Amino acid sequence: MSSSETRLRIVKLDDNNYAKWKGNITGALMSATLDEFINPDAVPVAAPTELLVQLERKVLYEAYVICQRKAAGIMYSHMTQAYRIIVESEGLINKPLAIWTLMKEKFQSTTSGSKGRAYASLIRNVYQSLSQYIKDTRASLANMHACGINFTDDLHEIISEMIVAKLPNTMETTLSILAAKQPLKTKTVLDTLDAHLIEYNELHLNESSSMALATMTNRPNRPPGQRFPYPTCTNGCHNPAVKGHRPNACWVALPELRPANVPPPRSRATTAVLQAAYMDDLIETSALSCQYRTNGTPRAIFEEVSASLTTSMC
């Protein structure tokens, strides 16, 4: 499948999506410049019948046959198994125009059978989500128009009431708006549902933005330069929340794995004790030095220690 076919997302033909399949196939063939093979007015390249023909005519015909098979392959590969069997049984697997005409006669014929299938497709639509329900309803109405169903005012009203009847009670406001627009037509119903869908999407987007903003606003404050608490391995045990290493490679749980040139981490309690001991040593050293430099009075010692501590803190 080419990139253009992938981009178009061609549906597989079944009993309910002929209108969409027809549009997808037409677009795919036009993108590949193969749409002449579904045009009944196009003149096909005739096969050479003479034994001695020019090489140019032979190459031209072979290229035409290759393109014809490509067009038929695109159509055949985007059909469900039931319709592939129909194409094979009719002997049309390499004839794109014949396949196109056969499907058109089956789905767009004005026979009562085609009209009944199109109407049954509309009845089978089930409300799952508003966007999907609108798509399914439009596709069913397109099939009904393609089969030649005449949409009188009475039929418009009947089909519109059928569409509205499948809407959930949660759409109370929209149902009230539709009730005020009696008698209904299919275009009125679909336009109202489109407006409701747009309003719902905008409201949902605003609510999502508000929730995201509230989440960012309610985050706990932290002093500048301080990180949020993060999991660490402590007390000789591996913390499963730590993602930086595996349990069998944890230096805290398995200290024998720690390289000799890497010192073990100090706990917060050890750090606090070392800081307190350092301050005590600093005060004691400052006091002793002051006794040698001054007359040893308490006030002089206190002033010297205070000045020394202030200098060390700065």
* Radius of gyration computed on alpha carbons: 41 Å
Portion in helices: 55-70%
- Largest beta-sheet details: none
Cα(first) to Cα(last) distance is: 74 Å
Domain module count: 4
What is the approximate shape? flat
Percent in strands: under 5%
Report the total helices. Answer: 12
Mean pLDDT: 77
- Sheet/helix structural class: mainly alpha
Contiguous uncertain segments of 5+ residues: 1-6
Element order, helices and strands?
HHHHHHHHHHHH
DSSP E strands, number: 0
Tell me the layout of helices and strands.
Layout: H1 3-8, H2 18-31, H3 55-77, H4 81-89, H5 96-108, H6 112-123, H7 130-146, H8 153-165, H9 172-179, H10 186-217, H11 268-293, H12 298-313
Helix pairs in contact: 3-5, 6-7, 7-10, 11-12
Question: Could you walk me through the main structural features you see in this protein, from its secondary elements to its overall organization?
Answer:
Helix content is 60%, strand content 0%. The chain has 314 residues and is mainly α. The protein folds into four domains: 3-108, no CATH class; 112-213, no CATH class; 231-261, no CATH class; 268-313, no CATH class. Helix 6 packs antiparallel against helix 7. It is flat, with a radius of gyration of 41 Å.
Summarize the structure.
The protein is mainly alpha-helical and 314 residues long. It folds into four domains: 106 residues, no CATH class; 102 residues, no CATH class; 31 residues, no CATH class; 46 residues, no CATH class. 60% of the residues lie in helices and 0% in strands.
